[in-house]
Design a protein that fits this description.
- By secondary structure, the protein is α+β, with helices and mostly antiparallel strands.
- Helices cover 20% and strands 34% of the residues.
- The protein has eight helices and 26 strands.
- The protein has helices spanning 14-24, 28-32, 259-279, 281-295, 313-324, 374-390, 394-397, 401-412; strands spanning 36-39, 70-72, 76-79, 87-89, 95-97, 100-101, 105-107, 112-120, 125-134, 137-147, 154-163, 169-174, 177-178, 182-191, 194-207, 210-221, 226-229, 233-246, 299-302, 415-418, 421-424, 435-442, 446-454, 460-469, 477-478, 488-489.
- The protein has a nine-stranded antiparallel beta sheet with strand order 1-8-9-10-11-18-16-15-14. Strands 2-3-4-5 form a four-stranded antiparallel beta sheet, with helices on one face.
- A hairpin with a 5-residue loop joins strand 23 (446-454) and strand 24 (460-469).
- It is globular and about 75 Å long.
């Protein structure tokens, strides 16, 4: 496949262009279906630590979508291109930095490079592909990162290097870890034949204008300072894992009095590192991707529009992903939270009544602005959460990521539940494109799908199908607006 040429200044050799395009070939089908989103960012070739700061503005053409390579699970969040490091979530859908970057930066200052990032929406991970030019050949350095979906304290980075050249090469590795913590202590340890650095301490945060203390401990794989690749060495893999634990509530008082808390967090980190390394990286990845596939069992699609500024599948998929990455998954996490943010016990009952009371969110421009840093991801999630809460969807939001995905889908179609009755509030003037709603939870009784198909005469037709029974002894019916005609029985 051919990657779109970047609309910014810069020069890359034909070999580097070909190298990147060849590496993207394996993603071709997913890229075409907007399930993997590719971006070339204006990063420095010289300094791997000159990545974008949180408030730094990125200049790009208005018609070019940039997709932030961000991972999260509602407990922690992280951007692949930011040097801000890990962000923690508090109970008001906002985030704050933990002043810790667990990612290993692989680089060489002796070769020219070209790089792209990608967001793998279905798998819930992000990655970076770098191609370094050595004479007429290119050396590949790829890195993928995910925040584990059902083990929310864990971040995993997988690094893969391929050297097709006839000579060996060396890449430097930089790991920053913690900075500016109070009462900070760092120690090295070894679990299951892996070296780790375990840090603990306290950071100061400002919440609602008041200073608070956050106790935390983080353990991360300690990689060597460099990696040497032999000639014709392929698929050289290196793994780094981090476990992040922080105090659930923000504290105040003397720092010295908080030492028992950070000691306990350190013990939790060490114990989870031992468990995770014993499980193995292959199983950890499968757990994570299976969980994301379960989250995406419900979804939305629409036909592509060529109109200027039109909302299309790439932006919708990205927005859904950023929202999902900002919420916990209490229904599937291994150590299930006893209470959610509202103090309501989590269970599999979808509280759908009166959701969604309003017009379709497809026309709400502010809800579809792509975030360019961690703060904008937090702002996007807050705006969506507030919108859904105001329109009757608080019960779904309380369920975590599965519930908020259902709420967003209902809002896209202006769909509302009332006493086991589902109706759409889409304006006929909006029905100029094909829409597809997949597996909407119908009052905990079944999963249904809805299609809006626009014919050659520009008239839209609505199709409803029954995908899956939750309670098989129920019957379901559909009718047109006002039910002027007799209702039709839905069958699986």
């Amino acid at each position: 496949m051919i990657m779109h040429k970047p609309k910014k200044k810069g020069y890359y050799s034909l070999e580097l262009e070909d190298c990147i395009n060849s590496k993207l070939e394996r993603f071709k089908e997913s890229i075409n279906s907007n399930n993997i989103l590719i971006t070339e960012w204006p990063v420095s070739d010289r300094d791997p630590l000159s990545n974008l700061k949180q408030d730094e503005k990125i200049e790009h053409p208005p018609d070019e979508n940039l997709f932030l390579p961000y991972v999260g699970n509602g407990y922690i969040g992280l951007s692949l291109i930011s040097k801000e490091g890990i962000f923690a979530f508090n109970q008001k859908s906002t985030t704050f930095p933990l002043l810790y970057n667990p990612l290993a930066n692989i680089y060489s200052d002796t070769m020219t490079k070209k790089e792209i990032t990608y967001v793998d929406i279905l798998s819930g991970l992000v990655g970076k592909i770098q191609c370094y030019q050595e004479n007429k050949n290119c050396i590949e350095v790829s890195s993928s990162v995910y925040a584990h979906r059902i083990r929310p304290s864990i971040i995993v980075q997988e690094i893969t290097l391929n050297n097709p050249t006839k000579q060996s090469v060396t890449f430097d590795i930089i790991q920053i870890f913690s900075k500016n913590w109070n009462l900070s202590t760092v120690k090295d340890d070894n679990f299951n034949n892996m070296e780790f650095t375990v840090s603990k301490g306290i950071i100061d945060v400002i919440i609602d204008g008041k200073p608070k203390h956050l106790c935390l401990s983080i353990g991360s794989t300690k990689l060597p300072n460099s990696i040497r690749l032999n000639e014709h060495e392929f698929n050289s893999k290196h793994y780094a894992i981090s476990v992040i634990k922080y105090s659930v509530t923000l504290l105040s008082g003397k720092l010295e009095n908080l030492e028992p808390i950070i000691n306990n967090l350190e013990n939790q980190v060490i114990e989870e590192l031992k468990i995770a390394t014993k499980i193995g990286f292959k199983k950890l990845a499968k757990e994570h991707m299976d969980a994301w596939n379960n989250i995406w069992k419900s979804g939305f699609g629409l036909s592509r529009s060529l109109a200027d500024g039109a909302l299309n599948g790439d932006r919708i998929n990205a927005s859904l992903y950023y929202i999902a990455s900002s919420h916990r998954a209490p229904l599937i996490e291994l150590d299930k939270p006893v209470l959610n943010q509202s103090g309501v016990d989590n269970n599999h009952v979808y509280h759908i009544e009166r959701c969604y009371e309003g017009f379709s969110t497809l026309s709400a421009v502010k809800l579809w602005k792509l975030p360019l840093n961690e703060k904008e991801v937090s702002n996007l999630n807050y705006l969506w959460t507030l919108t859904l809460q105001k329109h009757g969807c608080k019960g779904l939001i309380d369920l975590g990521v599965e519930g908020i995905i259902q709420a967003v889908l209902l809002s896209l179609g202006g769909l509302k539940f009332t006493h086991h009755h589902l109706e759409t509030n889409l304006n006929p003037r909006q029905l100029h494109r094909d829409y597809f709603f997949r597996k909407i939870n119908y009052a905990n009784l079944s999963l249904i799908s809805i299609e809006v198909i626009v014919g050659y005469d520009n008239h839209a037709k609505l199709y409803v199908s029954l995908d899956e029974y939750i309670k098989s002894n129920e019957e379901f019916y559909a009718c047109d607006a006002g039910c002027i005609d007799p209702p039709v029985t839905l069958e699986k």
